């Protein structure tokens, strides 16, 4: 396992979208990572035979890109392995748990959703003794691995209210995921064909994230006429279909 830092990031880069190192999304992700390392973010790649086999990204809850409240926890943003059946996912999860113990954290948090591959799979965390303690609309689940009898983390409960400011077609995003750029382009292309203007809100701070994001995922959301269109990438065709449904 290799923990990236600013120097090794320039040499090895992040895991996702690595086949397109010149893409805007990949460049933005690496820039975003560089700005997060001094906040305590860890990005660990697992290498097999000199090739990337998986990775985990996690950070203190106080600076995380997920909409969850709590103190003194680590939050797993992403977990992915491309070779199953070798215990790699559990190895990465346990490395995070051990790091949390060394940092005297109260535990580790992850947000899952069975309806999309944009969040880590719930099953592997249940297997590693995480417990589901909260849920939110659109299928989101909050899982935690606690070390002590400390207060539980929790989701906000004003999800419907968060949609009310966005009557126009609006994309809320951060650069935590390199696929956000592709996702944004697909919405713009679909909306343009329907002569609908797109407004983009680039979320810069955790305070903005906690106040504006209409889902716990936090990284990306598309809202139109006060309804959530998506929190993950859609094809241009499906963007148009969803917009027509709300016309």
UniProtKB/TrEMBL annotation:
<feature type="domain" description="N-acetyltransferase">
    <location>
        <begin position="1"/>
        <end position="164"/>
    </location>
</feature>
<dbReference type="InterPro" id="IPR016181">
    <property type="entry name" value="Acyl_CoA_acyltransferase"/>
</dbReference>
<dbReference type="Pfam" id="PF00583">
    <property type="entry name" value="Acetyltransf_1"/>
</dbReference>
<dbReference type="GO" id="GO:0016747">
    <property type="term" value="F:acyltransferase activity, transferring groups other than amino-acyl groups"/>
</dbReference>
<protein>
    <submittedName>
        <fullName>GNAT family N-acetyltransferase</fullName>
    </submittedName>
</protein>
<dbReference type="InterPro" id="IPR000182">
    <property type="entry name" value="GNAT_dom"/>
</dbReference>
<keyword id="KW-0808">Transferase</keyword>
């Amino acid at each position: 396992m290799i923990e990236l830092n600013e120097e090794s990031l320039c040499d090895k880069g992040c895991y996702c979208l690595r086949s397109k190192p010149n893409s805007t999304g990949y460049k933005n992700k690496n820039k975003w990572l560089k700005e997060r390392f001094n906040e305590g973010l860890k990005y660990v790649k697992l290498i097999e035979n000199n090739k990337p086999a998986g990775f985990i990204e996690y950070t203190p809850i106080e600076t995380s890109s997920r909409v969850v409240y709590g103190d003194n926890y680590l939050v797993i943003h992403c977990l992915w392995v491309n070779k199953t059946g070798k215990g790699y996912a559990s190895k990465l999860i346990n490395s995070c748990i051990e790091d949390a113990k060394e940092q005297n954290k109260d535990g580790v948090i992850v947000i899952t959703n069975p309806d999309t591959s944009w969040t880590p799979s719930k099953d592997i965390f249940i297997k590693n003794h995480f417990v589901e303690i909260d849920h939110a609309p659109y299928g989101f689940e909050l899982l935690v691995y606690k070390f002590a009898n400390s207060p539980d983390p929790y989701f906000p409960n004003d999800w419907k209210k968060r949609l009310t400011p966005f009557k126009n077609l609006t994309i809320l995003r951060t650069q935590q995921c390199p696929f956000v750029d592709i996702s944004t382009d697909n919405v713009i292309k679909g909306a343009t064909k329907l002569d609908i203007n797109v407004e983009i809100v680039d979320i810069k701070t955790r305070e903005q994230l906690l106040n504006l994001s209409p889902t716990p995922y936090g990284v990306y959301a598309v809202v139109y006429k006060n309804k959530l269109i998506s929190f993950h990438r859609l094809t241009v065709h499906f963007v148009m279909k969803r917009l027509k449904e709300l016309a």
